[in-house]
Design goal:
The chain has about 140 residues and is α+β, with helices and mostly antiparallel strands. It is about 30% helix and about 20% strand. It binds adenosine monophosphate (AMP) and zinc ion.
Length: about 140
């Protein structure tokens, strides 16, 4: 399942070149073209699904299993100190390519600290209201 106007589908087909680190029947793992840190990689399922809302559960689970395997191996090879696993869904969350993908971002003790955000100070009433909406 390929989408003609999708840049990651074109990479998967080989129409656009990429630095491919790993490939199997279901996934291609490439180097991010604008890395957040040295060794930033992307896991791309070969079938086109826009995001976590759309992708079948087992394919998302397989990407997580692959992430675990790869970061274990890459941590030794890159001699990095940790990893951020990032997965954006929809524009509001920063997704720029609408083909499900998992970012593997190596982090270095002396490197920049990404993914910091301003913590909101919500009142207890506001927290109650949100909890009431999403609690199962
Ligand atoms: P996101 O913002 O979560 O949708 O992530 C999209 C990622 O794809 C960004 O980190 C881009 O740098 C990366 N990217 C876009 N085009 C390419 C490309 N041709 N090859 C490799 N990575 C790409
Ligand atoms: Zn695609």
């Amino acid at each position: 399942m390929i989408k003609d106007d999708c840049i990651f589908c074109k990479i998967i087909k080989g129409d656009i070149p990429s630095r491919t680190l790993y490939e199997d029947d279901s996934y291609k793992v490439i180097m991010d073209i604008e890395p957040a840190d040295k060794g930033h990689a992307l896991i791309l399922p070969k079938d086109h699904y826009a995001d976590l809302y759309e992708i079948p559960e087992d394919l998302a689970a397989g990407a997580t299993k692959l992430a675990k395997k790869l970061i274990t191996e890459f941590t030794t090879k890159l001699n990095c100190d940790g990893y951020n696993i990032l997965q954006n869904n929809k524009e509001a969350a920063g997704q720029t390519v609408s083909h499900y993908h998992v970012h593997l971002i190596p982090r270095y003790a002396d490197g920049q600290k990404l993914f910091r955000y301003e913590h909101l100070k919500l009142t207890s009433e506001e927290m109650d209201e949100i909890e009431g909406k999403i609690k199962k």
